[in-house]
Amino acid sequence: MKLTSFDEGSVEPQESGRAVRIEFMAMLMGAALAVLGLKLAGTGEQTNFEDAALSRESTAEYASVDGRLIHCKDGRDVDICLAGSKARGAVRSVLWLGNSQVHAVNQQKPGETNAPPILFRLLSARGLDLITLTQPNANLEEHYVLFEYVRHHSPTRVLILPAVFDDMREEGLRADVAILTKDPETRVALERTAVGAMLLRSAQAADGENIDTKGISGTPQEKMESAVNNWLAGHSELWASRPELRGRFLLSLFFARNMIFGIKPTTKRKVIRGRYEANFAALKATLEVAREDGIKAILYIAPLRGGVEIPYERSEYEKFKLDVARIASSYGARFANLETLVPDNLWGMKPNTSLEEGEELDFMHFQAAGHGLLATRLDDLVGEVLAARGNRKSSAQP
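Structure (tokenized):
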């Protein structure tokens, strides 16, 4: 690599050599500072970036029954939940998809749990099995892919799906969801819809993309840099810790951005139109598939903290609820507005999302008693949709 460009006719060889030495020393100093930064930042600890916004008082819990997971995340462990359902001899399953509201318990006390194991026990009395899959900030495009994968590998009879206004601002598939598009049956199913085909193209484009060599894919430089990166990762603890350090750096940028622009939980979050429409397209595809496959769908507005001004533009939030209700009606899904289900006193606080001290209102996560209320209400809704289906079958008899 050529470090500098000199006009050989006007620069003396001695001056040229001095300039090269200065730049070389600068490079060495930069490398030394970089290593020092890695050393200071690399404590060897692994950060849970998924639930980084959870309060110190909130606990993420993924329940098991008889030593088998009933509550999983995504492509990393979904097959474990499916295997557990099969081992239990499930003939009718309920699939509950959601975000961190489902798996996080605020101010959890010994013996308390979140909603999935409570709902599991309630549904068991109805002869139903339950699989729950949740990811922080999960969007409806991801729910669509997870639904397609699970319904092809379990006897799914009911789908429970929350509509969360915050998550309508998210889009795309994270890697641990995108991996499921490699499943042949899931892939064929997604190809049938415009939004599914788009998600497949996006997943394929991102497949195998290395963040360290992004932008030089397919070039000789990529091969060389990948080889060097792989060697360093195997011989240097600092080099291998780059993903952890990169995550911490981006998390710090997130907190700094919030501080600079004064963004707080109470700051109004506005609709991002393109993402809003893309998520609703995925929702429509999900409900259409459920209807075609004879799967009863329950679509609910997620509980939201009351007693304070909501962090959304009121008109946009009201339109969102109307849009969800309209789509549910169009596809024969059971709609339920559970916005006010959890009383104000059962919500908690969370860490400051800027660099300031103190805690902030948490509009997403509540205490165990709130989880009990949610599980009980969802059990009632499952009973209603199954009873309605049974009544229709009876009325159709001659």
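The radius of gyration is 26 Å. The longest strand covers residues 156-163.
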